[in-house]
Specification:
By secondary structure, this protein is of the alpha/beta class. It has two domains: 180 residues, 3-Layer(aba) Sandwich (D-Maltodextrin-Binding Protein, domain 2); 112 residues, D-Maltodextrin-Binding Protein, domain 2, CATH 3.40.190.10. Strand 1, helix 2 and strand 2 form a beta-alpha-beta unit.
Length: 322
């Protein structure tokens, strides 16, 4: 009886000690890593820890940095290298998880292209020079024993929409894009599901698969995750991660409904393109701490080609949320 009373009082003490947040703020890009948030918000999944939950879109690293410096968010969807860069610049952020392990693909008009070597002598249009997709491509080329400058023509453009437009207007034959932009391009050219005669463009090479082949690894790249900003109650972090996992599983299992939900919140995308894209993204919610070895291997390749992408050094152990 005494034991039951003690357990009861401990439970009551924990309830009293924990107070709901007035507002829990999540920030993220329009990319896949952010999409499960909409399910969480729609379902009121965090109503036990926060009175309200708000999502804010960040459009570029400068905008993100301003939000974090002003303590304008509690959780952030973010490319892993950007998280490391901010951490190395003394921004109070820890990487909680890594759900996105493959999202980059080269679309091509040549149905015979199956590997990075098949692009030798060809032009590839690449958005965001010296950013993560470009560095991943360069790392694969280098590891395959090819020369970026001698064996390829990398043509850089400012944004993914610019690259996609060049492909659609037949001003480019090979374009590096990330989902869901790749699925949007397939839809816009009538290449999905397939034209009566032949598609206009083909899904040529998935970079994560080529990464696995040339590096003799498992074909996954720790591309994007969710970070914890500042000092947040561990119970809230745990609840957030649990609900993100549930929302991610729903997203993977319900592409039609997920496409409609995302399009309702981000008018940049058509529901069908989001639905199509889900089958082409490697999604697995892994603890950042447990994924440290894979993340560091990825970052070491960045250090060789473009150190500034992660702030010039590997982040310390404190970067990984425990």
């Amino acid at each position: 009886m005494k034991k039951l009373v003690l357990v009861f009082f401990i439970f009551i003490a924990n309830v009293i000690a924990f107070e709901k947040m007035e507002k829990l703020v999540i920030t993220g890009p329009v990319a896949t890593v952010s999409h499960p948030f909409f399910k969480m918000i729609q379902d009121g999944a965090l109503s036990d820890v926060a009175k309200s939950v708000e999502f804010i879109i960040w459009k570029n690293p400068d905008e993100l940095r301003a939000i974090l410096l002003n303590k304008g968010a509690h959780f952030v969807a973010i490319p892993t290298n950007v998280a490391a860069n901010l951490y190395n610049k003394n921004i109070d952020i820890k990487l909680l998880n890594v759900p996105v392990w493959g999202i980059l693909e080269i679309l091509t008009r040549d149905k015979n292209i199956k590997s990075i070597e098949d692009f030798k002598g060809k032009e590839i249009v690449v958005p965001f020079r010296s950013d993560m997709p470009d560095i991943v491509l360069q790392a694969i080329i280098k590891k395959a024993g090819l020369d970026v400058k001698k064996d390829f023509t990398l043509r850089y453009v400012a944004t993914p929409p610019d690259a996609m437009q060049m492909l659609i207007l037949r001003r480019a034959d090979n374009v590096l894009l990330a989902e869901p932009a790749t699925s949007m391009a397939m839809r816009k050219t009538g290449s999905f599901p397939v034209k009566l005669i032949a598609p206009e463009i083909y899904r040529g090479v998935k970079l994560e698969k080529e990464w696995g082949r040339v590096f003799k690894a498992d074909g996954k790249i720790p591309i994007a995750g969710v970070g914890v900003v500042g000092n947040i109650e561990p119970k809230i972090v745990q609840r957030f991660n649990d609900e993100y996992q549930k929302a991610l599983e729903w997203y993977k299992s319900n592409p039609k409904e997920a496409g409609e939900l995302v399009a309702k919140n981000i008018d940049l995308f058509k529901p069908e393109a989001i639905s199509d894209s889900i089958a082409h993204v490697q999604l697995q919610n892994s603890s950042a701490y447990d994924s440290k070895a894979a993340i560091e291997d990825f970052f070491k390749n960045m250090l060789e080609i473009e150190p500034k992408l992660i702030g010039g050094k590997l982040p310390s152990d404190g970067f990984y949320y425990k």
